[in-house]
Amino acid sequence: MGPPFAVLFLALASGLGAGVYGAIGSGGFPLDDAWIHLQLARNVSVGAGFGLNPHEPVSLSTAPLWTLLVALLHLLPWDIVAGVKTAGALLLFANALMTWWLAQRIGLDRGWALLAGLVGGLTPRFLWASQSGMEILL
After folding, report:
1. In the chain, N or C terminus with fewer CB closer than 10 Å?
2. Exposed/middle/buried for 80, CB within 10 Å: 0-12, 13-18, 19+?
3. Domain boundaries, given as residue ranges, for the chain
4. Cβ neighbours of residue 81 under 8 Å, at least 6 residues apart?
């Protein structure tokens, strides 16, 4: 159960968890804040400023780094909701991977470290967060 196996296992587990959770939920996001981030990001991506209305800047974003990441996703040729949910799934995997790595660094044996990584990738609140359209896992 070396590092390549653990990384692949955590990727599959967190990806499957996020996919199942995303499929169970609606096609959108559960919070209005996610839609606000999308609007801010859309304006940033087209050069219309950091605001809800084009060229009317506001200090509205509670997570500017997330807004900028979503602005980059707007430049890709796919549905933005799917893109944001995919980014959330990747961040969920990163959370699982970092939990596994940290568990090994503090001295847990491989099995316990892998279990810690699974908890980091499959905790229900983190699954929800990965598909919420918000910056929680960032």
Report:
1. N
2. middle
3. 3-29+67-130
4. 27, 28, 29, 133
Which element (helix H / strand E) includes 31? none
Q: Which residue is it, tokens 């990584």? A: 117
Tell me the H-state helices in the chain: 3-24, 32-45, 64-74, 80-105, 110-122, 124-130
Give the tens place of pLDDT for each residue, 21-48. Answer: 776 666 789 889 999 999 999 999 999 9
Confidence (pLDDT) at 93: 92
pTM: 0.86
For the chain, state the CA radius of gyration: 17
Contacts of 9 (CB under 8 A, 6+ apart): 114
* CA–CA dist 1, 57 (Å, integer): 51
